[in-house]
Amino acid sequence: MAARMGRFCPGREYLQEMSDCRQKFAPMGLTLLSGVEMGNPHQHLPEATAFLNRFPMDVRIASLHWLYGENIHDPVCFEGRDPQTVYADYFLELRNLVSGFGPIDILAHFDRILWRGTLLGAPFDPLTLEPLVRDTLSTVAWRGIALELNMRLLDHTPNWRSALATMLSWFAEEGGRHVVVDSDAHHINQLGSNLDLAVEVLQEAGLRPARLSLAERDLA
Fold first, then answer.
1. pLDDT single digits (tens) 110-169
2. Closest among 46, 135, 62 to 97, alpha carbons compared
3. What is the spatial distance between Cα 52 and Cα 5, in angstroms, rounded to a whole number?
4. Neighbours of 192 (CB within 10 A)
5. How far apart are alpha carbons 26 and 4 in whole angstroms?
6. Is the dihedral of CA 105, 98, 4, 54 positive or negative?
7. Which residues pair with residue 148 across a beta bridge?
8. Could you tell me the pTM of the whole model?
9. Nearest in space to 77 (alpha carbons), one of 87, 158, 24, 130
10. Cα–Cα distance between 24 and 7 in angstroms, integer?
11. Are 52 and 35 within 8 A, CB to CB?
12. Mean pLDDT in residue range 26-33
């Protein structure tokens, strides 16, 4: 359900289809959860709040797709700027997101800016921004929000897995309880991709894979 707020609305049709699918597949043992990913919801508070009030979702995902008014996936986000400043501003804005918008269950691909920076030849050393990154992750942990470990780009070369493992270890040290592992698949053949690399990152971070019972979290 990834989209910038205001450009996409699943509406009643989506929730009705989810209900129909539950009735069909629940007897087979399949659990289906409705969900939405909201980009920069803290910058669209009235719209984001109204959306969730109108369409309650089981899982509410927030992400930071826009910085300086530019899409973080585009090189223009870095143009004319020191890459380390971009990284700092990105993690600062992540902190603003989790501080400024209440109903979040999962913070999606919190490392996504590193993909674009890596492609531009600007490696990221988390130690240079440790106080800021830790403060951001501490806020995520304090809010009880889960971090997403996105597997789809873990095999990217060059990679940022070492930086990712470091940040995940900080998240755990700051009291973070849950890391959600998924493939963020845009195509069927990407489902479950790089699971072995995800396990390696978790182990390097001192974390262990475990199944999360839905009863452990309030998804209402």
1. 999 999 999 999 999 999 999 999 999 999 999 999 999 999 999 999 999 999 999 999
2. 62
3. 12
4. 12
5. 31
6. positive
7. 180
8. 0.87
9. 87
10. 30
11. no
12. 90
pLDDT value for 120: 94
> Would you say 135 and 96 are in contact if contact means Cβ atoms under 8 Å apart?
no
For the stretch 55-97, pLDDT in tens is: 888 999 999 999 999 999 999 999 999 999 999 999 999 999 9
CB atoms within 10 A of CB 141: 21
Q: In terms of C-beta density within 10 A (0-12 exposed, 13-18 middle, 19 or more buried), how is residue 209 classed?
A: exposed
Q: Please calculate the CA angle 167-218-183 and round it to the nearest 5 degrees.
A: 45
Q: DSSP code of 212?
A: P
In the chain, at which residue ranges do the beta strands (DSSP E only) sit?
A: 2-4, 35-39, 59-63, 66-67, 70-71, 106-107, 146-150, 179-182
Q: Which residues pair with 35 in a beta bridge?
A: 59
d(CA 24, CA 12): 18
